[in-house]
Each structure stands twice: as structure tokens, then as C-alpha cells.
Amino acid sequence: MKGYLGIDIGSISTKGVVIDGENNILAKEYLWTEGDPMGAVKRLLKVLEKQLAEDVRIVAVGTTGSARKLIGVMTNACVVKNEITAHAIGTTTVHPDVNTIFEIGGQDSKIIIIENGFVVDYAMNTLCAAGTGSFLSSQAHRLGVSVEDFGEIALASKKPTNIAARCTVFAESDLVHKAQIGHKKEDIIAGLCKAVVTNYLNNIGKGKKIRAPIVFQGGVSKNIGVKKAFEDAVGSEVIVDENGHLMGAFGVAVLAKRSGKEKPFSFETADIEFKTRGFECGKCANHCEIICVYKEDELIDSWGNKCDNGAVKASN
Question: 256, 301, 302, 260: which is closest to 279 by C-alpha?
Fold first, then answer.
């Protein structure tokens, strides 16, 4: 049986999905990147291989996420796409009528506006992390609770605390102040969920035409407190798919299948040594930062050059 592998490699988490020719998920995994994208993908491949039946043969790989080009070289991918495209394709494959996609990951957030199955508008966060998963994780640690329990605790609140949502610094100082003057923990947590949504809609969603059906995805979509806060804010049901946290990987797997291209792939990639080396090219005023990728000491790709000077040096 032919299988198609999609990998979404982010700064916080790494996701992988293998689908068949009918877009059925045959294997899936979500794990932490831990600052080592190549190491994370090696671990991912070992887990996915164990989940697959022996007759499944990966014939095409797609990559997306912040390290998509690096991992695309490593896995001999036939498709390398940005996160907007991957999430849109994945979501419209599962929810053909979707009009709005909310996505909140570990360090970034995005909104995608769909009309008749096509992306017509989108936005991503820039510098502020107040509306992301890493923000919620740090506040959970500060409050002494597990971030996995955040949603259930938030739903127990009868009067969510108002938490400043402008940025991480203001939110954290406001949280400490509210705790010191006696606000209940469940009210503070519900207020944090509301603050994440307020920050998202006022920044990423500003000026966007938000219409139902709305699909919420990314790791934070598993937080039922944030889901409810979104529904309260927009006055509409917000759909959370079982595999919403994997939608980028699923979408780029679908794109790899649709490409019609087949390139050799082996799970033995997980046992091969890959290295990256970077240097600054000083041959012209651009001073480009060149990245070289080596497979067992053999140069297999390089990028970063803005002119042929860097390309020549990178190929040596």
C-alpha cells in the first residue's frame, strides 16, 4: 500500500502524519522539538514506523513549519509548503465548508479566511507571545497547575477575572496582582483563557471577516477553556477536530499525494547522521548567512545566498 508522509516541524512541537490514497490516517505522532528539529524528526520517524503495517510504503513526503526546508532536505521531500497552505488544505479536506480557521500553536498564531475552498486572507502573530501555548504553559507553572487541566478548571469559574491581554509582561504582572488580592484560582485561569482569545481577536483577527463554520486548531485547541472563550467572543460554535493539532502535517501529506511525484524515502533516515554548518559570506556587501546541510559529511544542500558568490562558496 502506498503511504504519504507529512511533517510539520515547529519551534515547540513536531507533528507527523501518514495517510493512504483516500486520506485515511494510518499513523500519527506529536512530540516536542526541544530545540533540535533534526533530532525531533528522527524520533518522529521511529514512532511512525512502529505504527505502520508492514505493507505500507512511503512514496512521497511533504514538509511544513518553521524548519520545513531543512527537514525537506533531510527526508527527500517532494513538497515543501508554508504553514498557511498546509493548514488550509488539511482543514478544507476534512471540513469542506469551513470559512474561518483559528490556529494557536506553541509560539505562533494564525487566522485563515476561506471562501469557496480558497484562501482569501490570513494573518500571523509577530512578536507578542501572549496569545500562544507557551504563554499558557508558563502561567500554568506559575499557578502550580498542569496546563492539561487548565480547561476543566476554567469551566468551573462563575466570574472570570479580567486579565490584561495586551502583552505577556502586562498579563503576567496582572495575574500576580489578582492572585495577591484574593481572586480564586479558577477565576484567574478562566480570565487567562479569555485574555488569550481577546489578544488573538484584537491582533491576529483585527479587521478580518470572521464567519462560521469556524475551525479551531493547534495545540491550544485542546484547551476547552479557550474554546469556550472563543465561542463566547464570536457568538458561534467553534469546531475542534480530533486531529486539529496535527492539521499542518495532515495538509502537507495531502499535498504530497496530490503532487503526483514520488521520491525515494526510507525510515532508515532516522539512523543517518545529518549536520548543519553556517557561515557568513564576506564576498560582497550582502554578508549573507549561508546554511549548509551535510549527510554523513557529504554536502547535500545549502541556502541563504543572495548572489552567486555565496552559492559558489557553499558548494565547495
Answer: 302
Instruction: Answer for the pair 213, 182: CB distance below 8 angstroms, yes or no.
Output: no
Computed over every residue of the chain, the mean pLDDT equals 88
Across the beta sheet with 274-280, the strand order is: 274-280, 289-295, 298-303
CB-based contact 26:52 (threshold 8 Å): yes
Q: Which three cell numbers stand for residue 58?
A: 512511503
Q: Give the distance from CA 227 to its chain's centroid.
A: 18
Instruction: Please check the confidence at residue 257 and state whether its pLDDT lies above 90.
Output: yes
Quick one: which H or E segment has residue 192? helix 185-203
Task: Decide the pairing of beta strands 109-115 and 100-104.
Answer: antiparallel
Q: Which residues contact 71 (CB under 8 A, 6 or more apart)?
A: 7, 9, 37, 38, 41, 63, 65, 77
Kindly report the pTM of this predicted structure. Answer: 0.85
Q: Calculate mean pLDDT across residues 182-201.
A: 88
